Amino acid sequence: MTFGEQMKHKADEVNLQGKAKDFGDAVIEVLKAAVGLAAGYAAENREKVDGALDKAAETIEQKTGGKHADTVTKVCATVDKGIDKLVEQKPKPEASTPPVPDDTFSAFDDDAPSGSPSQSASQPPSSPSQSRPSSPSQSRPSSPPQSRPSSPSQSSE
Questions:
Q1: Predicted TM-score (pTM) of this structure
Q2: Which of 80, 78, 76, 92 minimizes the C-alpha distance to 40?
Q3: What are phi and psi of 68, to 5 degrees?
Q4: Cα–chain-centroid distance for residue 3?
Q5: Phi first, then psi: what are they for 47, rounded to 5°?
Q6: Where are the alpha helices (DSSP H) in the chain?
Q7: What's the CA dihedral at 77, 83, 89, 94 to 10 degrees?
Q8: Do residues 95 and 39 make contact, with C-beta atoms less than 8 angstroms apart?
Q9: Is 21 a member of any domain?
Q10: Rg (CA), the chain
C-alpha cells in the first residue's frame, strides 16, 4: 500500500471529509452572523460612516489639489453602494441569531450538571503533577515568622 493510499484510508477511517464539511458549515454560520452584526452597526451609524467618508474625500482633494476629484467621487459612490448592500443584509428583527452556548455554572459549583464544562473543571486532577496550588501561599515554601523590632514605647516598660 502506498503512502497516499494509507493517508486516504486513514482519512476515511476518521471521517475527515464529514468533519471538514461540518467545520466549513460552522465557518459559514459564523461569517453570516458577523455580516449581520456589521450590517446592523452600519445601519445604526450610517450618518457617521457618511461623515467619515466625506471627510476623507475632502482631505484627499485638499492634499492633491483636486487632481483626483473624479476618482475620489467614483470611490465614494462605490463605497456608498457597498454600505447600502451591507445594510440590506441586516437580519430582520423576527429572525433569531443562533444561540450561544452559555455555561451558567461556575467551576466552584458542586451541583453543576454532568457534561457541563464546569463540572469537568471542578473535578480534582488525575495526577499530582497536574495539580495547582489553591492559593499563592501554598506555592511558596513557608518561612519562619519575622520578629518585629519592638517599638520604643514597649522597650521602656
A1: 0.43
A2: 92
A3: -115, 30
A4: 39
A5: -60, -40
A6: 3-13, 16-44, 46-64, 69-88, 117-122, 136-139, 152-155
A7: -130
A8: no
A9: yes
A10: 31
Q: Which three cell numbers stand for residue 45?
A: 451609524
Q: What percentage of the chain reaches a pLDDT higher than 90?
A: 39
Distance CA 37, CA 32 (A): 9
Type of residue found at 148: R
For residues 133-154, one letter each, b for 16 or more C-beta atoms within 10 angstroms of the residue's C-beta and e for the rest, the string is eeeeeeeeeeeeeeeeeeeeee
Exposed/middle/buried for residue 35 (C-beta within 10 Å: 0-12, 13-18, 19+): middle
The answer to whether 53 and 80 are in contact (CB under 8 A) is yes
Query: Domain range holding 15?
Result: 11-88
What does the DSSP 8-state code read for residue 127? S
Q: What separation in angstroms does the CA of 146 have from each of 33, 60, 142, 149?
A: 59, 69, 12, 9
pLDDT 10s digits, 46-97:
899 899 999 999 999 999 998 999 999 999 999 999 999 988 887 766 555 5
Domains identified in the chain, total number = 1
Encoded amino acid at 7, one letter: M
Distances (CA, A) of 39 to 20, 92, 93, 100: 28, 11, 13, 20
Neighbours of 33 (CB within 10 A): 14
